[in-house]
Amino acid sequence: MTRVEDRRNLGFAQKVRTLFDPLAAKHDFRCVSENVTLVRYESKLLYLNVYHGRSSYELGIEIDRVGGESESEHGFTLSELLQAQDPAKGAQFRYYTARTREAVDRGVELLFELFKECAGEALGGSGAYFTRLREQRERWKQDYAQNVLASQVRPQAKEAFRRGDFGESVRLYESIRESLTSTERKKLEFARRKLTGL
Length: 198
Description:
This protein is α+β, with helices and mostly antiparallel strands. The chain has helices at residues 3-8, 12-26, 78-85, 87-92, 101-118, 120-124, 127-163, 166-175, 182-196; strands spanning 30-34, 38-42, 46-52, 58-65, 76-77, 96-97. It is built from nine helices and six strands.
């Protein structure tokens, strides 16, 4: 059996259509394409992709305005919709991986229930809502970049402080000021005092 035949046996598209078609119709969406890993719905304003990751086997959703700024990248994920509605719930969300027909059935059901719970504003197509989602995504990107920078700079700053190179230590700690722990803030203040002779 080929990989496509294997995927067809999982029944992903059929399960998605069974659950999502009535909701889609209620919001003037129609199914415009389907295959073994993707079912795409569109309305005049929005598109909705329900997918089964080709390699990861993760079940997920993307939604955005047709021609939206993020459409060239990817739409807003279920995780982002949950985060906008309830940050704690969004932070706890994990993608469901499904490699058997039973897991696909259960996973698509879970996906559908979560989507119904948090997608009201998204399905309304409000431009203001999608602007908020874009802003939320941008903040997340900035936070992520800051965390990556901090993870790279921390060991260097710690080593400079250990060597007594307080100028370098101050420079490095200042570059990640927003991410400093209380101990690192104390080290920064100590290094500054050493530099000024106080």
